[in-house]
Amino acid sequence: MSALLHVEGLSRSYMLGGHRIKALDEVGFTLGPGRIMGIVGESGSGKSTLARLVMALDRPDPGPHSGQVRLNGQDLFALPPRALRRARRDMQMVFQDPYGSLDPRQKVGRIVAEPLHLLPDRPTGRARREIVAQVLHAVGLGAEAMAQYPHAFSGGQRQRIAIARALITRPKLLVADEATSALDLTVQRQILQLIRSLRDRQGLGVLFISHDLAVVEDLCDEVAVMHNGRIVELGAMNEIIARPQSAYTRRLIAAQPSLRGLG
């Protein structure tokens, strides 16, 4: 299977209080089309830094050995601005907070349509409305949602709107950064099922980032366990749950009642 996303030797440091903090330390993995990979670890393990680098919203440390992010074979950090803009059609991100990620001053139709500016032939008028209605339907919302403001919707519905916005350019890669952690368990299950369904229908590759190993185990085909900026374990989800090699992974499993006894 060809790689949709290939991350190799990715490193990122920050200065904090006069000290250099290594947020990512030579991180690498490969994600195939139509696969869901979980990135799991505690707060501060480097997960969100990784998400920003995968989306090319940040850059690795300067120098020739700070890593690459390749999407469909293209090194994102080597692309000129116009080519990077084109590449962004194929990757979209959903954030943690379904309340803060949607502009409360804009109607849902305009919010969902916003990424269409990335397309070379930007649809307008009736064609634009039809595309927005289609993608809202794909996430379980009606076309009437277009005329409403975000405050009219529950947290789970707002996250569906955020996913619709991410899907409107028909990306090949979806990066979900703690996308269910602000939701209650019932709504969380609905969003996980939606992500599975979108993967199955559209062949979407998903990088699902979470601190919750039980949620990752429920959704993902593969998992990378992060600790202190490094991947300490990487492989098939069921194999790592059944036979964890890292002491840190074993601690994560022990902290999840639903997973105890599986490792």
Number of helices: 9
- H/E order of the elements? EEEHEEHEHHHEHEHEEHH
Largest sheet: 6 strands, mixed
The average pLDDT is 90
CATH architecture: 3-Layer(aba) Sandwich
**Which secondary-structure class do the elements indicate?**
alpha/beta
Assembly annotation: single chain
**First-residue to last-residue Cα separation:** 29 Å
CATH domain class:
Alpha Beta
Topology-level CATH name: Rossmann fold
Number of domains: 1
So what's the overall shape? Answer: globular
Sheet with the most strands: spatial strand order:
6-7-8-3-9-10
| Amount of helix | 25-40%
Which percent range describes the beta-strand content?
A: 15-25%
CATH superfamily heading: P-loop containing nucleotide triphosphate hydrolases
Radius of gyration from the CA trace?
A: 19 Å
Q: Give the beta-strand count.
A: 10
Model regions low in confidence, pLDDT < 50 over at least 5 residues:
none
Topology of this protein?
Layout: E1 5-16, E2 19-31, E3 36-40, H1 47-54, E4 68-71, E5 74-75, H2 81-87, E6 91-94, H3 108-113, H4 125-138, H5 155-167, E7 173-177, H6 185-202, E8 205-210, H7 213-219, E9 222-227, E10 230-236, H8 237-242, H9 247-254
Helix pairs in contact: 4-5, 5-6
Task: Describe the protein.
- This protein is an alpha/beta fold.
- The chain has a single domain (5-259), classed as Rossmann fold (3-Layer(aba) Sandwich), CATH 3.40.50.300.
- It is built from nine helices and ten strands.
- It has helices at 47-54, 81-87, 108-113, 125-138, 155-167, 185-202, 213-219, 237-242, 247-254, and strands at 5-16, 19-31, 36-40, 68-71, 74-75, 91-94, 173-177, 205-210, 222-227, 230-236.
- The strands form two sheets. The chain has a six-stranded mixed beta sheet with strand order 6-7-8-3-9-10, with helices on both faces.
- Helix 6 (185-202) links the parallel strand 7 (173-177) and strand 8.
- Helix 4 (125-138) crosses helix 5 and helix 5 (155-167) runs parallel beside helix 6.
- The model has no long low-confidence stretch (mean pLDDT 90).
